[in-house]
Description:
mainly alpha, 2 domains, Rna Polymerase Sigma Factor, Chain: A, single chain, 8 helices
Amino acid sequence: MAKTAAKTDRRYEKQLIARACDGDRGAARTLVDLHKDRLFAFIQRMLRNHHDAEEICQEAFLKAFVSLDSFRTEYRFSTWLFTIGYRVCLNHLRRKRAVTGEPELTENLAHSSDATCETLESEEAARLRRTVWNSVATLSEPQRASLVLFYRHDMGCQEIARVLELPVATVKSHLHRARNRLRELLEPVADQDIAAFRNRRGLAG
């Protein structure tokens, strides 16, 4: 059943693409609605700036629709779209580096509601999530993209390789290095959190 649904979705998507190529604005809008949330989430994780992510997401869709007639239907539209989004992200980050001289790592994510919860556990969980994504921001762009696509968007290494236009072996290497780097960055934080939790619960010693 799931495979049939997936095939139907691909068929429907191909129909939308064909109609959009013929100038059907409704079909183009439907394609945007189908993919905008996931694309925006990926771009925001790459740029860590809500306003920039909105602009880059719009630019990615614009580039996609301008060159829609070059889309090869044997691939998933989402993979092609993420490839365009990734390229635009890299160009944006390079331009920003040229101006500032350093990567943009500013935390500008929307705070989740549990960050203000009264319980210690919720506060610690929210803080740990921020720490994790601050650590992710220190990775190289390919490592960061590989990690986000793998864990947040459930893409396999082959699909990630198509998105990033890299060999599969290189994607696996980026994931391996990213995990090791995060482990190095987060181990001291984890030790501190455990010690703080034990102290607050009177478990030290």
